[in-house]
Predict the structure.
Amino acid sequence: MKDNKQYVALLSKSRELFMRHGVKSLTMDEIAKQMGMSKKTIYQFVDNKADLVKLTMQDFLGEERKLIEGILEKSGNSIEEMISMIEYWLQVVQEFNATTLNEVQKYYPETWKMYNEYRFNFMLGLIQNNLKKGIGEGYYRDNLDADVIAKIYILGVEILLNQDMFPAKQYTFLNIYREFLGYHLRGIVSAEGLKYIDGHNLFKS
């Protein structure tokens, strides 16, 4: 049943709605209305809203992992890897509501646990490997501690999501995320790496 076109469409539309509006205020009635689908049909695929949130996150993370692995296969060096991943992440967050992950953390602990496992395993390892590769290539500073910098990067995203520091009414998440990524990349590159990235206008509005 999980290959059913309706199920795939449900996860896709739910992802779009959750990223745009958050998860707390969005009701199953509203999701059904947006889908043009009855709640009875939706409940053929999920047990409740918490189940839908978890499955939507699982689907998104699985898709993201495949996309990033594809980026790594195509990229020639560490900076190309990071630039391609930055371009992908900036595309993802264009419609992102910064309150979404805060609400997942607060109201959907199983989904938050799954998200944390993904970022502290797959994503952390990804950043560590990229840093080590860049040091070896001479594009990143040779005195970097890859483990420390990777953890700072992963945890830094939480600061961007902090609504006390960056309230959604005042800050656009895309803008602060772009600044953060520029801060990260320019902070780790060597003089040679800086020359390489100067030709890319990643951090322009």
Notes: Residues 109-137 form the longest helix (29 residues). The two ends are 43 Å apart (CA to CA). Residues 5-197 form a domain with the Tetracycline Repressor; domain 2 fold (CATH 1.10.357.10). The chain is about 70% helix and 0% strand.
